[in-house]
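User: Can you help me understand a structure? I only have the sequence.
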Amino acid sequence: VSLSFLVESSIGASSMNFGKSPARLLTKDRNKVTFKDVAGCDEAKEELQEIVEFLRDPTKFTALGAKIPKGVLCIGAPGTGKTLIAKAVAGEADRPFFFISGSDFVEMFVGVGASRIRDMFAEARKCSPCIIFMDEIDAVGRHRGGGVGGGHDEREQTLNQLLVEMDGFDPSEGIILIAATNRPDVLDKALLRPGRFDRRIVIDLPDVKGRMEILKVHARKIKMDASVDLMDIARNTPGASGADLANILNEAALLAARKGRSAVTNLEAREACDKVRYGKERRSLEIDANEKKTTAYHESGHAIVGLFVKYADPVDKVTIIPRGFSLGATHFMPKKNRLSYWKRELLDQLAVLMGGRVAEEVFVGDISSGAQMDITQATKLARSMVCEWGMTDSLGTVAYDERSDSGMYLGSAGMQERTYSDETAKYIDGEVRKIIDEAHLRATEIIKEHRDQVQLMTEMLMEFETLDRKDVEEISKGVWDIANKRARLKAQEELQKKTPPPAPILNKEQPFPPGAAGTSEPQQV
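Assistant: Let's start by predicting it. Here is the structure, written out as C-alpha cells:
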C-alpha cells in the first residue's frame, strides 16, 4: 500500500509540474564569459553593452524619456557566436539571467507550451529587471496560418502567448527577451514588429580583422610556437565562422600533441586549417602513378595560370594529397576582404579555373573528369556575370534570373522564374559559352608560354606532394633549389620536438624496480 501511494504521489507531483517553465537561472559563479571573450562582432557588442548599462543604471536613460527595449533578436549563420554573446551579456550584467530553448515549449499536448510561457514570465517578474535568453526561437516563432493544425495547433498557441506576454495589456516591465535564430525568414511578422523585438542584431561571418581577433581569443589557452602566424590563418579562412576558427586551433593542438611536440608549430596550424576546411588527408587511397601525374599536371596548370594573371589572388599552396572528394587542390590566399566582384578579377578567375583542363590537354594529350568542379564553378560564374551582374555589352544591364520567394514557407530556398523569351535564352547561352571559351584560350596561351615551369612544378609535386607559397614563387621566378626545400622540411620536423625522458638507472644488486615484472614482490592493485 505504501509503495502504490508513493507511486501515485510522484505521478501527481510530476503532472502538477508539467506546465512549469523549464527555464534555468544562470548565476555569475557558473558563467565566466564576458565581452572580453567575444570578438569579431564589435557592432553587436555595442548594442548589447547598452542593454547591460540600462540594467545597471536605468535612470541614466529614463531621465531622458527613453524606455527599456522589450526584445533583442540576434540573427546570424550557425557558429557565429549568438549564444556566446548572450552568455557574455549574462556575465557582464549583474542581474538574473534565465536561459531556455525554443524546443522546450513544444509538447504533444495543446496548451502546455503556453502555460510554460506564462510561468516563465511570472518567475522573471519576481526578479525584474532581468534577462531571458531564448535560443532557436524559430521552433515556436514560425509563421502562423500555414494550414497545418488549424487554430488549435500547439506551436501557434505557444506563439500567441509569447506575443501577449511581450506586449499585451499587462506589459512585462524590466524584462528583456534576447532571442537567437539563424532563420529569420520563417518568423512570424507579429513577433518581429517594434514593441516586441525592438532591436535586430545581425552577427555576420567575420572579416579578416574579425577572424584575427577571434583567433587571438582562442589562442590564449593554447601553447604556440613563435612560427605560428595567426594572420596567415585568418587570411586563409574566408567565410569561416568563430566556431570553425576555434575548431582549427583545437585540431592544431591535437596534432601537435600526437606528434610529440611541446608547442603548436606553423606546420600543425596549416594542417589543421586544411583538415577543418577540406577534410582529412586520404593517404591510404591507392592511386595509379599515371593518374597521380595527371593530377600533378592539373594542379600545376591552375597554379601557373594563377601566378601569371594580373588580378587573381596569390597562390598559397599546391598539393596532390587527396582530401574529401578531390585528388588534389590549389589554394589561393585572398589579398583583401571580398565585398564585391569586379569584371577583370572574374575574367582572371575563369582563366585560373580553366588552367587545369588546359594543362591536361597540352601535357597529357587527353582530358579527364577531374575538371568537373572547375567547369561547374566556371559556368555558374559566367552565368552570374551575364544574367545577374550585367557584365556583357550585347545583353546590357538587365537582370535575367530573378529569385522568387514563393514556397519559402514550405521550406524551399526560393525558386527561379524565367522572365525572358526563348530567343534571349539563346543569347544568354551564347554569351556564357563565349566568356568560358575566351578564358580557355587565355589559359592555353599562358601555359604554353610557361611550359617549363609547369613541367618543373609537376615533377616537384610528384616528389614532395605539397608545395607552399615560397616553393611556388621560386619555381615561377626560375630560382628553384631542391636542397633548400629539403632543408626547410627537416627544420619543420625538428621544431618543438620533445626530448625523450632519460632511461632509469638500475642498481646492480636489484636488476628490476620493486613490484616490476620478473620480481618476487607482489604488485599492489
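Now, to help you interpret it: Residues 1-15, 404-414, 516-525 have pLDDT under 50 and may be disordered. The first helix runs from residue 2 to 16. Let me know which part you'd like to focus on.
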